Amino acid sequence: MDIRFEGVGKVWPDGTRALADIDLHVPAGQFCILLGHSGAGKSTLLRMVNGLETPSEGRVRIAGEPVDKRSLPALRRRIAMVHQHFGLVQRASGAANMMAGALPAMPLWRVLTGLYPRAVRTRACTLLHAVGLEEAHLARRAERLSGGQQQRLGLARAFMLDPAIILADEPVASLDPALGHEVLELLRVQARERGTTVLCSLHQIDLARAFADRIVALHRGQAIFDGPPAKLDERD
Ligand code: ADP
Ligand code: ADP
């Protein structure tokens, strides 16, 4: 599904402005990186796609439909999120964390009782392998996994939904460079091979250059560059 930001702006209740005049169309299957320093507005923009923030001006459309109270429940079944600090329930098993990824499409009682349909279990194992983890990791509590393993679990959880859109908010900021490359590569493959639209925030220009189909650079809430990595010059 494609994402369209139409004249999007955000002013916080205290009067500070986080975003101004954002007009972007992210086509389905694109790996689009939002590049910018801390405070540039990346997270706010990402969170508007799944309704965690609402624009003060303009609107966001997904597959042509405005993101609003009415459309959000259905949209959330197609949008997954990946977080900087992994967003896992630390005391819960890898399996429980994975199943939580399927929650928008599965009743809560299944996660609470651990009675998952066989197809869902099989899918969890397939996806776990796809991100380079083993079934043994499913039994372990999330807190017992390394940072790299936790983020891979975070990705596998996101893939559980077979999402049309993945929002990744600084997904490699807590990882060392080699692991960061692996995570970005998994996201790139997801976009390329499964047609998932991936909107990912980063603050490292070299990583954005190496992995993105497209870079949108944000500076103080404004898009100051929008184009393929090859067009981004050395300034900044
Ligand atoms: P980034 O993700 O690029 O680091 P953010 O989108 O988190 O940037 O923040 C953009 C601006 O909005 C910053 O100035 C930040 O301090 C401010 N901000 C973020 N969230 C809130 C909030 N809930 N209330 C007030 N200001 C906020
Ligand atoms: P297929 O290629 O027919 O989709 P796979 O063996 O690759 O089958 O995957 C098995 C199941 O897991 C399918 O339902 C597929 O949609 C899903 N799947 C596999 N990899 C991913 C992924 N990276 N993201 C989302 N779904 C995936």
UniProtKB/TrEMBL annotation:
The keyword Lyase does not apply. Transmembrane segments: none annotated. Residues 3-236 form the ABC transporter domain. Keywords: ATP-binding, Cell membrane, Membrane, Nucleotide-binding, Translocase, Transport. PROSITE patterns: ABC_TRANSPORTER_1, ABC_TRANSPORTER_2. GO terms for cellular component: membrane. CDD domains: ABC_PhnC_transporter. InterPro entries: AAA+_ATPase, ABC_transporter-like_ATP-bd, ABC_transporter-like_CS, ABC_transpr_PhnC, MetN_ABC_transporter-like, P-loop_NTPase. One of its GO terms (molecular function) is ATP hydrolysis activity. This is Phosphonate ABC transporter ATP-binding protein. The lineage of its organism: Bacteria, Pseudomonadati, Pseudomonadota, Alphaproteobacteria, Sphingomonadales.
